[in-house]
């Protein structure tokens, strides 16, 4: 089904915010406002035209994280927007319903631009998500949560300076959609939370305070094959998940971030793994509207990603600020992929620090982790995966529709300090 055209306007601009308890307004950046940006939403089959204006005093870009689109529209470091400049990408939405996001990608400065407030959600709908038995009233029982940590100094300024130290900027304050200490009044028995870890470095273990089970229904790239019950969800920077939580009338329950198991990390405390935070307080009304058990049908357009279809295997070793021993070079193409083919990418975190792996343009599936089948919540479509230390992840990916020998896509660690430091490579699809 092909649809009409959806036009969006985004202006990256300077602003300031007065957060409660802070003496002075904090200088920030935002899109169409002082901090973060609007939720964009489009349907599969629709054409999207975006006008991105850069009104901040630095060169930036705007990347559509998780989107399948031509490399020239991707908004990576090759699509710079100068101060005062405008960029007009357009593409057709050609992927299943999902919770995607957008953020700048200027080479070497992504951490700072995201930290200052440039990011937003991009939701995709399709027929399958329309007919799914899932809460879908945006802002009522279908709630976007951009979760970020920030630090503000005594003068009320966002702390940016100790960038460069592992694992990157770790804040002591959790911001959800740009607010501190949010409370949500709930009027239905079930609530869908679209979670984005929009932090630059911190990985969360999200759970309800009593660790009651939640239903995970979607990963980065859309609905799972079936709901997965879990009580804690690990979410690394850049990753998304949708969960459905059930509430009983009159109760109050907090969504929290608990100490997170990052795998065999050398010094967990240095990564913020021991920290605990409240994220969101949920207050259920005295009577709640009934909501069905989450369920959904098959995607009629789904083409399975199968290892036996792979035409080749590539290996990627992450170490220090390098991938396969090389730092990002805007003028070097690291990998050449053929359009219409399936590949296996074998990705290894070779050391005892956290890394993640993100690939532009595609949604991959995890085949195995150290030869073991992945746990159920890691079997969905993903564009970003947390890499536990000393483990090897085999991913299966399909590169279809868009070929451009002159314009690369990126793959990189999504811990933004690492990305900015050069832990990124470029591939072209020809
Ligand atoms: Cu979310 Cu290359 O980025
Ligand atoms: Cu991306
Ligand atoms: Cu990394």
UniProtKB/TrEMBL annotation:
Keywords: Metal-binding, Oxidoreductase, Signal. The keyword Signal applies. It comes from the Bacteria. GO terms for molecular function: copper ion binding; oxidoreductase activity. Coiled coil: none annotated. Residues 25-128, 171-247, 316-430 form the Plastocyanin-like domain. Belongs to the multicopper oxidase family. This is Copper oxidase. It comes from Brachybacterium phenoliresistens. The lineage of its organism: Bacteria, Bacillati, Actinomycetota, Actinomycetes, Micrococcales.
